[in-house]
């Protein structure tokens, strides 16, 4: 059995040297409720196509790593209840045992790099959780950004995290954190975290050139592009802060830990905002898909 399979659309794009954007599947299975998850996954793929690139949604289906999913596979994944959430630690085990799993940012980066895809768009990366000084809960996404050469377009790190600590760890790991079109680090549902991003860029071409330069310097690891949510879709951080505090306290009280923390917090914030957080999440993912496509197109222009 091949290590991975391409969808026909992705195989044709890679053969032709066309721009391809990787997309993750944990956001579908653990990040959004049915049926909006399927609807969003389809819209995100279409946003990539409309911006001139080809989407490659990545997942492990019955042991096989898929780079690009058919619409039927996308729907099956979106409907499934008991799918594993795969990161660097458990991706190989899932594949070796023939099981099905959705890929997080870390696992999607590994798969994208394997398939020669340099750009990946998602919602928000994992990071250092609040209380990490006692829980040690730091997402494997951060180490992956240091190790695997894929540029990740996200709306910053999720605001449920400790953002100053997340920035410190990324700096230690040598990961460039680049705010797009503004100085402030965005905070997922909000445009401004109150923190200044270490770097700023204003065009897809700049991002593509920096990505190429890392390769020329033989630097492992990718770039984190922090793309602010569109103004009309944002929930200001002031409105969200008490809700995040409540959701975090609930997670602590219930003893939620490990992989379950992020999905629990996203669901709790969905409930506490009456669903508004989901609308914002969808808007920011679409916005990231469009920028990801523009960066992938800029990269193909650099090659020639
Ligand atoms: N972006 C979203 N929703 C999500 C995620 C990203 O808009 O659910 C997922 C990604 O797969 C990311 C994961 O890797 O959340 C972080 O999980 P953890 O904190 O357990 O590392
Ligand atoms: Mn964690």
TrEMBL record:
* Enzyme class, first EC level, given as a word: lyase
For this protein, the Enzyme Commission number is: 4.2.1.70
Q: Which SUPFAM superfamilies match?
A: Indigoidine synthase A-like
Q: Name one GO molecular function term.
A: hydrolase activity, acting on glycosyl bonds
Q: Which domain of life is it from?
A: Bacteria
Q: Which UniProt keywords apply?
A: Glycosidase, Hydrolase, Lyase, Manganese, Metal-binding
Q: What is this protein called?
A: Pseudouridine-5'-phosphate glycosidase
Gene that produces this protein: psuG
């Amino acid at each position: 059995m091949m290590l991975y399979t391409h969808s026909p659309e992705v195989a044709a794009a890679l053969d032709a040297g066309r721009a391809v954007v990787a997309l993750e599947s944990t956001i579908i299975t653990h990040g959004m409720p049915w049926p909006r998850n399927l609807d969003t996954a389809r819209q995100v793929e279409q946003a990539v196509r409309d911006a001139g690139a080809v989407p490659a949604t990545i997942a492990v289906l019955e042991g096989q790593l898929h780079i690009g999913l058919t619409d039927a596979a996308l729907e099956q994944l979106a409907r499934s209840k008991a799918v594993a959430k795969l990161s660097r630690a458990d991706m190989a085990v899932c594949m070796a045992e023939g099981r099905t799993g959705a890929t997080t940012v870390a696992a999607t980066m590994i798969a994208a790099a394997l398939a020669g895809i340099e750009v990946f768009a998602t919602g928000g990366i994992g990071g250092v959780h609040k209380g990490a000084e006692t829980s040690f809960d730091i997402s494997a996404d951060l180490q992956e950004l240091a190790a695997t050469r894929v540029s990740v377009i996200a709306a910053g790190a999720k605001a449920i995290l400790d953002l100053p600590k997340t920035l410190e760890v990324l700096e230690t790991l040598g990961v460039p954190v680049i705010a797009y079109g503004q100085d402030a680090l965005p905070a997922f549902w909000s445009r401004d975290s109150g923190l200044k991003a270490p770097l700023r860029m204003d065009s897809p071409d700049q991002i593509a050139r920096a990505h190429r330069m890392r390769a020329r310097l033989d630097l492992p690891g990718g770039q984190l592009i922090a793309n602010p949510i569109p103004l009309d879709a944002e929930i200001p951080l002031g409105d969200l802060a008490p809700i995040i505090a409540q959701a975090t306290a609930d997670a602590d009280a219930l003893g939620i830990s490990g992989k379950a923390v992020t999905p629990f917090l996203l669901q709790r914030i969905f409930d506490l905002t009456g669903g508004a957080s989901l609308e914002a999440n969808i808007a920011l993912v679409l916005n990231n898909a469009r920028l990801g496509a523009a960066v992938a197109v800029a990269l193909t222009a650099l090659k020639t």
